Amino acid sequence: MTPLDKVDAAIVDRLQRDGRLSIAKLADELALSEASCWRRQKRLEERGVIKGYQAVLDRRQVGGGVLAFVQIGCTQHGEEVTAAFERLIQACPQVLSCHNTTGEADFLLQVIARDLDDYSDFVERVLRKLPGVSSIRSHLSLRELKSTHALPVLDWLRAPG
Which residues have a Cβ under 8 Å from the Cβ of 147 and sit 6 or more positions away? Predict the structure, then answer.
């Protein structure tokens, strides 16, 4: 991993806020030539720093009324069981993110559903059938205070260490 310089950090910071920003506008905002800006953006994409571009949707506007954080405990940790668990989670569109964690739970999932009935069905139909699962603990979001995927790259450049 090569750390970002100030210009690359500024490029990704602006693109995180507006992925539709044109090269011309981006170059103008950063006082770069369009060619230089394009080369830097292309290099960031090729290095995998920029993994893609997508529209950010309001989950409620498209029917996602329930957001749950789900702790999964497992009794079996063998390679085959873990691989099967990971394949099933990867294929599940309701799972927005899944993290292997320390602490009480082995995995922490962020799950979206239309409503409580839809979430209950997902738990019964999918989560309870995952291989090696011994416990499922759901935490329903009552109110979302902040939701972002934007990384504080400019802050990281300023911070010591």
Answer: none
- Calculate the dihedral angle through the C-alpha atoms of 158, 159, 160, 161, rounding to the nearest 10 degrees: -120
From residue 65, give the alpha-carbon distance in Å to each of 52, 94, 116.
26, 12, 8
Q: Which residues contact 20 (CB under 8 A, 6 or more apart)?
A: 53
Domain range enclosing 20: 6-55
pTM as predicted: 0.86
For 81, other C-beta atoms within 10 Å of its C-beta total 16
> Phi first, then psi: what are they for 6, rounded to 5°?
-65, -35
What residues does 139 pair with on adjacent strands?
69
For residue 111, what is the domain's CATH number? 3.30.70.920
Residue 24: give its domain's CATH number.
1.10.10.10
Same domain as 27, residue 88:
no
Could you report the per-residue pLDDT of 10-64, keeping only the tens digit for each? 999 999 999 999 999 999 999 999 999 999 999 999 999 999 999 999 999 999 9
pLDDT value for 161: 57
